[in-house]
Write a structure and sequence with these properties.
The protein has five helices and two strands, in the order ββααααα. A two-stranded antiparallel sheet has the order 1-2. Helix 3 packs across helix 5 and helix 4 packs across helix 5. It is elongated. It starts with a strand and ends in an 8-residue tail after the last helix. The relative contact order is 0.12.
Length: about 180
């Protein structure tokens, strides 16, 4: 054994690792080699199959949503759909109520249940306003802008609009 060397007042001995530690290290290496060989060449569970199984489980748990069909005149496809109206109300209360008030009567944002529409009152115009937002170039009546909500997706926006149509008769399908 070498004599301990001193570095900054700390003595460091060159002691070997304990034998049991060396054995654990050696056994873990042997096990890992065996594990890799078994799972890559002899297993009935290759990575491709595991991925396919996980995709199938995901599709069962979260079925694919039907594609939202755009209506030629720009009207809301969810208008009158009770489920969409309920979901739209929940989305409105979670996201929109902060600016438009809990009953859509206006706060920072404009009133959505009166007869006056600042940026258009058709489904198509309101959809574009929600998805693209109201930037500084489109502001009217000294009202602030509105952020774009295209991250919500068309389905949620149409659901909110369906709920809003039940609160305000002046939101029309199309001109």
């Amino acid at each position: 054994m070498k004599a301990p060397k001193e570095v900054d007042g700390i003595f460091q001995a060159d002691n070997p690792m304990p034998t049991w530690w060396q054995l654990v290290w050696l056994i873990s290496i042997i096990f890992s080699i065996g594990y890799v060989v078994y799972f890559h060449w002899y297993s009935e569970w290759p990575q491709e199959v595991a991925f396919e199984n996980e995709v199938k489980e995901h599709e069962v748990k979260f079925p694919a949503k039907t594609q939202l069909v755009a209506v030629a005149d720009g009207s809301n496809p969810y208008r009158g759909d009770a489920v969409a109206i309920k979901e739209g109300e929940a989305t409105y209360k979670q996201i929109c109520a902060a600016c438009h008030g809990p009953n859509a009567e206006g706060a920072v944002g404009p009133n959505l249940v009166d007869k006056d529409w600042i940026h258009g009152n058709t489904d198509k115009e309101v959809f574009v306003n929600i998805m693209e937002g109201i930037g500084p170039e489109r502001q009217k009546l000294n009202r602030g802008g509105m952020p774009a909500w295209n991250g919500l997706g068309a389905e949620k926006v149409y659901s909110v609009m369906a709920w809003l149509a039940t609160k305000n008769d002046t939101l029309v399908k199309a001109k």
